[in-house]
Task: structure prediction
Amino acid sequence: MRKAAFLLLSIFPIVSSCSSATSPTSKPAAAPGDYVVLAWNDLGMHCLNPSYDKLVVLPPYNTVWVQVIKRGAKPEIVMANVSVEYRIEGNTYSYGKRNYGQFWDNAVKLFGTLFGFTSLAHDVGLMGNGLAGQMALAGDHFVVVGIPLTPINDDGTWDPYQVADITVKDAQGAVLVKTKTVVPTSDEMHCEKCHGADPFTDIMSKHDAANGTDLAGTTPRLCADCHGSPALGLMNPGTSGKFLSKAIHGFHADKGASCYDCHPGPQTQCSRSARHTATDGNCVWCHSTMAQVASSIPATRIPWVNEPKCAMCHDALDVDTGSLLYRNAKGHGQLYCASCHGSPHAMIPSLVAKDNYQSLQYQGSTSKVKSIASCGVCHDSSRGGGEIGDFAETHGGAKPEKMNGCHICHTSVSTDSAKWPHAYTWKNSN
Result:
């Protein structure tokens, strides 16, 4: 099996130094005090339609997760007596930008039955959230689901890498810690490559001719009305008998289409992890060809539910997330894998500077861009080299010779290596 070196804690080295391609546009905040907050997007890139008056695949819908940690010899995940707020930088509204207002104009017809509403206010998403607000506690993390975000800033700039300011406050409203995270979204679908200047009309016309449907006469139409899409919570193939992923990938498999024709895209770079990507996104490496994606549904997998795992390429057994997706899996100290390693498709270091903000915030603005707490911040080899006793002598105890990545959350590190929970590898906890 080929190795697509995944940035799991203290396993593989990454880039040798920061560059203009990986440095954030603004200097990160200072290193942590008593609290640490880690934030990430759940998918690495959310997609939305460029218009909502004809054929509709996906709504404006973005999700952010956060974990708050109280630093200590044994750090604690904080779930009580704090609040977490989010705010999209430079993006305060969505209705009225380009054709995105059509989503709200047609929201009841397209999504009302599916999501159970009879009206939807402008700039409010399908789950009732806006572009700023308070995140909800969801067990061991905070989350905001369905942010109705578009890739257009208030000044008209197109930017698929939107940024959320995350602020953690105590029960009295005092700020404990802040960070930033990329909230990516793009409408970069290139259906016009094959379907002409009015691609959705062409698609509906050809679909009607081939299948005896009447999409063109009943616009706007949600593809998931007939083709079940687990991305929208529809866990069966629908009246068509084919999941949307199977129908689209299967049909286009022999049409000369590439992944980035539909999945954003040459400009957006949906897949942008430095060690996992290429000019075409490197999608086939993990997901296989379009024909294989289609043939596997539902024979061996359900789209969005059963996806590639880190252990497919990596030898270390400790990176196997079992039945969980990477984005839902936990490891050391019950932190989510993505909290330290980044969102799926944007694992640190990312080719997009803004994705690397937290790596530099917590590990120094002149540090190498590495996953949170990687030994590789200081060592050319992420494992650090040398004997484990040397590590304990240098980094262990309450007053170590040198602070290291463990000290982002831990105020002291045991000199007894038997007590180290990961022993240079990241162990998943299901």
Summary: Residues 1-23, 421-430 have pLDDT under 50 and may be disordered. The chain is about 15% helix and 15% strand. Residues 199-211 form the longest helix (13 residues).
